[in-house]
Each structure stands twice: as structure tokens, then as C-alpha cells.
Amino acid sequence: MANHYEVPNWAGKPPTGLHLDVLKGDKLIQKLMIDEKKCYLFGRNPQMNDFCIDHASCSRVHAAFVYHKHLNRAFLVDLGSTHGTYIGQMRLEAHKPTQLPIDSSFHFGASTRNYIIRAGKPPTGLHLDVLKGDKLIQKLMIDEKKCYLFGRNPQMNDFCIDHASCSRVHAAFVYHKHLNRAFLVDLGSTHGTYIGQMRLEAHKPTQLPIDSSFHFGASTRNYIIRERPTGNARGIMEDLPNTETEASEEAGPSSEPRKKKYAKEAWPGRKPALIPGV
């Protein structure tokens, strides 16, 4: 398994709107935009990957998605994972880029989540720009459901915030279809939910204007709500629960070292007592 992947010189930025539909069974649980970078890494370690796969059968850095700028085609690369990367039922040869046709499906190890690559643009609507400092690190699409939950537990939330100051189920994003407005609700968290510098009153829906910023607890990740115009649709993520979790290198409220824990998806061949199911 590779701890570092050297992006090939033929890699280039994918076309606008290229994205992944993430399914668990027949249910669409997430959309991941993959049109911002030359390469996206998938793996179990949230600090080392673009998209975290929270499953015991997945390696720390499991696979890479790379777009070929000359061929205008997507490729998937298994990075020497233990339990394999699959396009359909075909296990990929390690370290060999394999073409990923539009509308094809792939998965990692024994995870039951399937990723389907899609061209074009997701539906117009709302999304969140996720920033760490001044750097845009992710886009989360929030126009598929009425309510999205944010919190530290990946099994209980739509988007996982992997930070010690965040509660298990920290806050909710709710869209009011009659008012056509978004609201943010703190769910009684210990360290608070903030719109700008204003801490929200617990359990009270607070309007979230377009282009406003919010964050959770002491996390340094900021979320900015955006509206995608019809002529230039954009969008995306994080596992629903989101496994595009926040890297835990951010300092929590305590200076004591904290052992990283993962809530794992159950998979065949492991004892349920060791790996809680989802």
C-alpha cells in the first residue's frame, strides 16, 4: 500500500460537472464532485485522502482517481491495497491506471458503497463550499434532501465532522420549501454552532443567508452556503454518513493526545463484536 501517490504528468483537470454518485444498495446517499483537481485519493485515513472510506477492509491510502488531459478520460488506480479496488466485478491490478468509462461503477474492498462516475452537471441548487483557511477543500451538495445532519459520528450523520470539539450529532441544515430559505439548527452541542461569530441558540432554527459562513465548535473548517446559477451549475459531498470526514490534525479543545477512532462498516469475515455494523 502506498502512503504517497505521485501524480503522473499526463494528469489534468477534469471537465466541469464530472462527479460521482455514491450508492448504498439502491439508495443514492451522496454526490462527490471530482472536477476541481487532477487527482483525488480515496482511503481510510482522513488526513491523507480527499475522500475518506470509513470501512475496515480499506487501506489507509487505497486508490487514486486521475483524469488524463490528453485522452480526456478518467482512470482509477489501486495503490497496492490489501482487499482490492473493483470496477464492476473486475479487481484492478495494483498501480496500473485502468480506464473508468462514464456511468461505470466501482467500489473499494468489501465496502458496500458503490461509486458511479457521471458526466455533465448535477442539478442546480444549493451547495456548501468547505474552506480550511483560504483554501477550498471540498464542495458539499445539499439540494437532494430536506435536512442534513452534521456531527462527529459517521453512522448518525450525513456529513461527518472529525474534530474533538464536535458533538456526535452536532447540528442540522434544513431547507424551508415554502419560504425558500435555509436554516441552521444547533442540536444542543457542547461547543456550539456559529454563523460568522454568532453562536446559535440551541434547538432554534436560524436563517442562513446565501454566501454566509458557519462552523462547528473549535473546528477551523468553514462552510459557506452557495447558490448555483442555472447557467453554471456546480455542486457536490462527505459518506451519508459522509466519509469525506474532516482530518483530525486540527487542534481540539484539549491539549491531551487523542487516539483516533473510526466507526467501521461491517464486512464479511470479521466478528461483529470487533466491528460494529452500520
TrEMBL record:
<keyword id="KW-0678">Repressor</keyword>
<keyword id="KW-0747">Spliceosome</keyword>
<keyword id="KW-0238">DNA-binding</keyword>
<keyword id="KW-0507">mRNA processing</keyword>
<dbReference type="GO" id="GO:0003677">
    <property type="term" value="F:DNA binding"/>
</dbReference>
<feature type="region of interest" description="Disordered">
    <location>
        <begin position="231"/>
        <end position="278"/>
    </location>
</feature>
<keyword id="KW-0597">Phosphoprotein</keyword>
<dbReference type="Pfam" id="PF00498">
    <property type="entry name" value="FHA"/>
</dbReference>
<keyword id="KW-0508">mRNA splicing</keyword>
<dbReference type="GO" id="GO:0008380">
    <property type="term" value="P:RNA splicing"/>
</dbReference>
<dbReference type="GO" id="GO:0005681">
    <property type="term" value="C:spliceosomal complex"/>
</dbReference>
<keyword id="KW-0694">RNA-binding</keyword>
<keyword id="KW-0539">Nucleus</keyword>
<dbReference type="GO" id="GO:0016607">
    <property type="term" value="C:nuclear speck"/>
</dbReference>
<dbReference type="InterPro" id="IPR000253">
    <property type="entry name" value="FHA_dom"/>
</dbReference>
<keyword id="KW-0804">Transcription</keyword>
<dbReference type="GO" id="GO:0006397">
    <property type="term" value="P:mRNA processing"/>
</dbReference>
<dbReference type="InterPro" id="IPR050923">
    <property type="entry name" value="Cell_Proc_Reg/RNA_Proc"/>
</dbReference>
<keyword id="KW-0805">Transcription regulation</keyword>
<dbReference type="GO" id="GO:0003723">
    <property type="term" value="F:RNA binding"/>
</dbReference>
<protein>
    <recommendedName>
        <fullName>Nuclear inhibitor of protein phosphatase 1</fullName>
    </recommendedName>
</protein>
<feature type="domain" description="FHA">
    <location>
        <begin position="40"/>
        <end position="92"/>
    </location>
</feature>
<feature type="domain" description="FHA">
    <location>
        <begin position="148"/>
        <end position="200"/>
    </location>
</feature>
